[in-house]
Amino acid sequence: QFDIKIVRNSNGAVILDAPFSKDLFPVNVVSGCEYTITAEYGGNTVLGLNKPYYVGSVVESVQKGQTKDITVPRSAIVGNSLISVRFGSTQEGMLRFEKYFEDCAVAVIVGDNMVYLPFSNPNVSAYLRAGSGFRLNFSGVLRSSGQTRSFDLPEDMLPSSLSPAEHLVVTLDIKAESGLDITITKAEIENMELDQNIPYEWLPLSSI
Question: Model's pTM, two decimal places?
Fold first, then answer.
């Protein structure tokens, strides 16, 4: 559920900071002051699989004797960043990974935390706290020998960090018939919106 936070802008005083419940409202505030009302959904974890964090806020003021209904806008953004991997820029490229590897994945590493984006599940994304440094490591088991091939993807082709709502999509291709020459074909950053990942109806209401 959403966590709701109300802060008086003039002095930073926190009026409310709690999980949303109708029993919390109405909230008594000082008239004539501006307040920032923020709704957050999902924890802003260091790193996780398919763990989006949403945040939206609105600034309002209330006059003496007035009761105001406030809705945190539906333009809430993804507050963390995400990384996805595409194995092959074409269908032929994807089949080449199947040809040379029994299994393969890219590990997203942030500090001591690590999650895997496997070839077998292309719909999984890694969500990380915005601004965090990260590195990507490819690993795969070769069909020809059963040996594991593992190496870090070149950092000079990747951003050092990502801003909130930025989605890094990394496309890998096998360039040589040996199956060992794996390169980054593309590393593109897209901006995520709420509708692109989780429909609004999946989220609890953010009205106050």
Answer: 0.79
